[in-house]
Amino acid sequence: MKKLAIALSALSLLMAGHVPAFADAEPTGTITALLVDEKNRPISGVNVYLNGDLQWSDTTTDSSGRFTLPDLAPESRISLQLSDDYGVFTGYLPSAGRLLTQSMSKARRFVVEADQTTDLGTVRIDSTPRLRSASAINTTSYKTVRDSFKRKLLPYAKYVYGPTPKGGSCKVKPTSSRAKKQMLATVNWQRSLAGLDPVKLDDRLNARAQRSSVIQYYARDLSHEPSKKSKCWSKIGADAAGSSNLYMGATAGAAGLGYVDDVGVRSLGHRSWVLAWPTTAMGTGDVGNYNSLYVVDPKAGSIVRARPEWTAWPSPGYFPHRLEPSGWWSWQPNRSDISIDKAKVKVTDPSGKTVATKRLSEAYEYGQIGFVLQRTVRSGSYTVSISGLELRDRAYPVSYKVRFFKG
């Protein structure tokens, strides 16, 4: 009866509007911030985790890039970690610089103040160390592109007949240093025009590419999956064939240009591999008039590289008309959070007239937009406009000019 009386007494107090006094709640604080990328665009949909000695909390940035972590216990040593489904923004907010760090020891420390909201303001986070290679050609300068084209590309854009086996042997001399130099020069010049870092030739990849070319040479055909019945078949050579661009009828620098030209290849896959931003090393092997260019770099992604937001070919700015790929053009995003699913391409010629284009659906397999201009491309300025692109579910329109010149 005594317990029931106490309960009824408390209930009557509540009904009368009187709330019993209990112990005060512990004071808490709040942290908020606005996250933007290097172009001041909001970073939405990123998971934010608070790591502290006393607590753990998480939230997600909204469409404006803002996050708020409320009801935090006062603490002087917390860090903020980001996790991104796209893999672009993943790591800890750094103590210095604007690139996320994977090391918690290098993470920036924050303080949660009791009964206060700590606004970190606008926090800029770069999606990549560099948007353009330090060695990239300045394509806004006609003279720079023209001179570089004449001095650093044309002397190497040649064909060198490769070594051949003797007496049906599977052994062949290594690709000549001259041919390797030409291949490297043409590949890197085209990468430089697209704003990408140069690559190196790796001796081990060169040897593997050579084994692939021996198989292609005897087959008198090209195959990324050569049959085990093929003459001179080897596991090393077959694996290399599956990791290489293959060319019949050109080697050395001529093949290097041919891969990026890629006319008639509906996937434009050879071009995509040569102009892949993460690549650090390739390997080349010539046998007769067959070339294998080993392009699947085992170290790709492990070394910091310049990453433009996208790569186009022909590239924006001044562009030698002699390299125009007969209307077979492409545009490829280099960020995984850019969607091309709804993209539409429009091209206008120097007079402002729209040029009809035909999409290459096979290029989508390589994450790129491939399209063929239905009219001969001449000298002058062409404008490419791409609508329907999305960056983290926000409209991401792209427009650029290609200025073709003869010479």
Written description of the protein model:
The chain is of the alpha+beta class and 407 residues long. The chain is built from seven helices and 24 strands. The strands form six sheets. Strands 2, 3, 5, 6 and 7 form a five-stranded antiparallel β-sheet that branches. Helix 2 packs antiparallel against helix 3, helix 3 packs parallel to helix 6 and helix 4 crosses helix 5. The longest helix has 17 residues. The relative contact order is 0.11. The N terminus is likely disordered.
Our Rg estimate from Cα atoms comes to 29 Å
Q: Give the proportion of residues in helices.
A: 10-25%
> How much of the polypeptide forms β-strand, as a percent range?
25-35%
What distance lies between the first and last C-alpha atoms, to the nearest angstrom? 106 Å
Shape annotation: globular
Average pLDDT works out at 93
Q: State the helix count.
A: 7
Taking the sheet with the most strands, its summary is:
5 strands, antiparallel
Task: Give the number of DSSP strands.
Answer: 24
In the predicted model, the low-confidence regions spanning at least 5 consecutive residues are 1-23
Structural class: alpha+beta
Write the layout of secondary structure elements.
Elements: H1 2-15, E1 29-36, E2 47-51, E3 56-60, E4 66-72, E5 75-83, E6 91-92, E7 110-112, E8 117-124, H2 142-153, H3 177-193, E9 200-201, H4 203-219, H5 235-242, E10 244-248, H6 252-261, H7 269-274, E11 281-287, E12 290-294, E13 310-313, E14 317-320, E15 328-333, E16 338-339, E17 344-348, E18 354-355, E19 357-360, E20 369-373, E21 380-387, E22 390-391, E23 394-395, E24 398-405
Parallel strand pairs: 1-8, 9-11, 14-24
Antiparallel strand pairs: 1-4, 2-3, 2-5, 5-6, 5-7, 10-12, 11-12, 13-15, 15-20, 16-22, 17-18, 17-21, 19-20, 21-24, 22-23
Helix pairs in contact: 2-3, 3-6, 4-5
